């Protein structure tokens, strides 16, 4: 375990935690490409001309982002509602991330409030947390702003929203995330970031993006939080 990780956690006053990846794999039972296809079918049924690159999109979040470029608020809300419904269903079969629960519990035991900061809908996040008996460990959920995909990470707004809710300066928080959007959003918000490389190709990608710490196991974070130097 790196001294950098211990030092970063030791000076942090709150943990901001991405949801899909560090906490669970939300689309493990209801695959993201299937949801993306359903949203594209919805757009197609509404007479939207889908470019080839959009028609082949497998990320439902990107379908939502593209829908916002159409300048049709009612249609955007319809896509948002469809994605929210799909996420709620996906939350029922989500697979917990290894050591995700341990990180949340260890942070609370160390006296650090935990907020979820995610591009997923708050409803799906809260449903998962309730099912897994984690809701009482979470101080705040900053989910996706309804029908406003421009506010999703890498926009720093969700991180600022969480820090404000916790009444803590962003610079004294740390974000744990597993995507470049997490790193970019954290850096824009002035929040240190621990990049969780849960797939081998991410290691170099996250290092190149200048994440403060890059690691391959959430267990390292839980262990650091449980040691005397790992808390506040």
Overall description:
The protein has helices spanning 3-10, 32-45, 52-55, 60-68, 73-92, 100-109, 122-131, 157-166, 180-189, 202-208, 218-226, and strands at 14-17, 24-25, 95-96, 114-117, 140-142, 173-177, 193-196, 213-215. It is of the alpha/beta class and 232 residues long. The protein has 2 domains: 3-25 and 95-230, Rossmann fold; 32-92. The strands form 2 sheets. A 6-stranded parallel beta sheet has the order 5-4-1-6-7-8, sandwiched between helices. A two-stranded antiparallel sheet has the order 2-3. The radius of gyration is 18 Å and the shape is globular. It starts with a helix and ends in a 6-residue tail after the last helix. The mean pLDDT is 96.
What's the topology here?
Elements: H1 3-10, E1 14-17, E2 24-25, H2 32-45, H3 52-55, H4 60-68, H5 73-92, E3 95-96, H6 100-109, E4 114-117, H7 122-131, E5 140-142, H8 157-166, E6 173-177, H9 180-189, E7 193-196, H10 202-208, E8 213-215, H11 218-226
Parallel strand pairs: 1-4, 1-6, 4-5, 6-7, 7-8
Antiparallel strand pairs: 2-3
Helix pairs in contact: 2-4, 2-5, 4-5, 5-7, 6-11
Question: What's the Cα radius of gyration?
Answer: 18 Å
Which class best fits the helix and strand makeup? alpha/beta
* Topology as a string of helices (H) and strands (E): HEEHHHHEHEHEHEHEHEH
CATH homologous superfamily (4th level) name of the largest domain:
HAD superfamily/HAD-like
Spatial shape? globular
Low-confidence stretches: none
The biggest beta sheet is recorded as: 6 strands, parallel
Mean pLDDT: 96
What CATH calls the topology of the largest domain is Rossmann fold
In angstroms, what separates the terminal alpha carbons?
18 Å
User: What topology, given as strand order, has the largest sheet?
Assistant: 5-4-1-6-7-8
């Amino acid at each position: 375990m790196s001294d950098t990780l211990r030092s970063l956690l030791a000076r942090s006053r709150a943990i901001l935690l991405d949801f899909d990846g560090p906490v669970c794999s939300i689309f493990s039972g209801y695959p993201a490409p299937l949801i993306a296809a359903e949203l594209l079918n919805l757009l197609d049924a509404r007479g939207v001309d889908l470019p080839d690159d959009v028609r082949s999109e497998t990320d439902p979040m990107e379908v939502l982002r593209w829908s916002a470029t159409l300048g049709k608020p009612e249609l955007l809300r319809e896509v948002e509602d469809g994605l929210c419904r799909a996420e709620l269903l996906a939350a029922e079969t989500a697979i917990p991330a290894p050591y995700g629960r341990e990180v949340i519990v260890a942070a609370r035991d160390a006296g650090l409030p935990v907020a979820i900061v995610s591009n997923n809908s708050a409803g799906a996040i809260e449903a998962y947390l309730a099912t897994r008996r984690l809701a009482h460990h979470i101080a705040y959920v900053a989910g996706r702003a309804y029908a406003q995909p421009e506010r999703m990470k890498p926009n720093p707004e969700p991180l600022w929203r969480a820090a404000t809710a916790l009444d803590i300066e962003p610079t004294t928080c740390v974000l744990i995330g597993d995507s470049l959007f997490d790193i970019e959003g954290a850096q824009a918000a002035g929040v240190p970031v621990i990049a969780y490389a849960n797939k081998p190709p991410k290691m170099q990608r996250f290092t190149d993006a200048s994440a403060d710490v890059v690691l391959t196991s959430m267990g390292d974070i839980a262990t650091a939080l449980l040691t005397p130097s790992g808390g506040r």
